[in-house]
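Table 4 source record.
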Amino acid sequence: MNIYIYIIEFVLAVAIVYAYYKLIETKKIKRYTQKNMPTDLKLFIHMTKADTNKISNKKLMNIVALINGVDIGIVLLMTNLVKGFFLKLLIAMPTIFIVLFLSYYIAEFVFRKKGLTKNES
């Protein structure tokens, strides 16, 4: 397959997932509380130790939307490199978790550098 097709698929996947989060996920909740907070936002806050007093939940949700879009684009690219449905599933399952935790770890590193994490003393 041509490399341009892979790039177009990646960009489209990121755009579609980001648009979904921006248009649907962030609009359906007016005010974020611990009870009605989306699960992926809870996971992101827990894994990155983000201080919600320093950065708002709306901004965190935008960051989660971008990270999830890039993650899904990467997993799509990796699964499109192989042939066969079951082989794609076999590659996609561990790749999703690896890419997700790696991207959240990088986000935690960036948050720590900017001073947006909770001080655990």
